[in-house]
Amino acid sequence: MRGLILFLRARRAPLAMGTSVFVLVVLWVLWERSSDSPQAGLQMVVLSILLLVSALTMTLSGPDDELDETGAVPWPVRRAVHLLIVVVLVGGLMLITQLTGTRFGPMSLVLRDTAGLLGLSALSAAVIGTARAWFVPLGWTMAAVIFPRSDTLLSRVLTWQAQDPASTAAAVTATVLALTGLIAYTVMGPARGAPAEATAQ
User: Fold this and answer.
1) What are the b/e assignments for 82-102, b being 16+ CB within 10 Å?
2) By percentage, how much of the chain surpasses pLDDT 70?
3) Which of 42, 77, 137, 186 is least surrounded, with the fewest CB atoms within 10 Å of its CB?
4) Residues contacting residue 71 through CB under 8 Å, at least 6 positions apart
5) Are 133 and 116 a contacting pair, CB within 8 Å?
6) Is 70 exceeded by the pLDDT of residue 18?
7) Are 67 and 112 in contact (CB under 8 A)?
8) 200 phi and psi, to 5 degrees?
9) pLDDT of 4
10) Contact between residue 198 and residue 64 where contact means Cβ atoms under 8 Å apart
11) DSSP letters of 92-137?
12) How far apart are the first and last CA of the chain?
């Protein structure tokens, strides 16, 4: 148990969880006060998922990434479980809103976008490092939400985050990103950086 607590602290898990809860509460209050609809709009739901995933992305590396290669520890398994836990946490937080007067969903959209955005974040962490891993999901998602969408296959793929939950193209895109990020992060881990740089994240 002590080892788990130290691991969570090293990965800044308490800070990430606290930030996630705070962000969701703020967005929930904003929608509850500004809209008569009990169901949060699509853009608000997508933005919420993006911010929650971005906050939890900081846990994908520790103060010294080189430590991930030391000791007889099954790091690939730990990394895969870590990503799965993040998906459950985001899904769980969004699911709690279903019990209130202002709901963030549907859950099919939440799970699709959470898996896809986390996969993209994990892939970015493996390639460019955890400190910058949130850049790509943020830029792509904001563009998908802001710019007009057409009904072409390319448009549905490029704007998968903001597509209807029933969109097959969006589901396939999210699945590909989730699997690619899972494989890249579990096999390679976060891109190596100097301990001082990792601590400053």
Assistant:
1) bbeebbebbbebbbebeeeeb
2) 85
3) 77
4) none
5) no
6) yes
7) no
8) -80, -5
9) 58
10) yes
11) HHHHHGGGSSSB---HHHHHHHHHHHHHHHHHHHHHH-GGGTTHHH
12) 26
